[in-house]
Description:
Blueprint: H1 3-23, E1 30-33, E2 36-39, H2 40-65, H3 71-94, H4 100-122, H5 131-148, H6 161-183, H7 185-194
Antiparallel strand pairs: 1-2
Amino acid sequence: MNLANRITLARIFLVPIIMFFLLVNVKTPHIRIEQFTITYNQIIAALIFIVAASTDSLDGYIARKRKLVTNLGKLLDPLADKLLVSAVLVSLVEMGKLGAWVAIVIISREFAVTGLRQIALLEGRVMAASKWGKWKTAVQITAIIALLLNNFPFEFVHFRFDLFASWVAAIITMYSGFDYFMKNKDVINWNEQKQ
């Protein structure tokens, strides 16, 4: 249990805390600026989400720099990412801030690519993250933060950035999943040939 794996575990443990602030009805005051309103709960959840999302790069950097890459880390890191994003997306759907279809597209892609990675891992291959996968992560995090913050500051200029970012996240997520499967289709074909 090295430093990188502890950071990854911390990201997993932050998931229920974020969900608590989003879904449990705790009476906290609202912040109101003109027509814009947001609860302290949402601000706290957004800040915790930003901290948790930023640890994704940190644990990988520490593991590579200090040569702390372990099988446990290879298992936990993608699991932590999927749990964080999936839990917040489901929470946003429950809050009525995100269409269920967007959450389903994103979560389905994550499960599909994780399955493909597991097949590759069984064959002794490691699927590196593609540039589309990195873009997908960045856009998903941006969209989630915009949704958590009630479209702040774009609400003041009457631009639905949160909605726009959600659509872009869904499209890039679908394309990156397609890209992974096209570039690694030999993994599935090779597995079928063995049978």
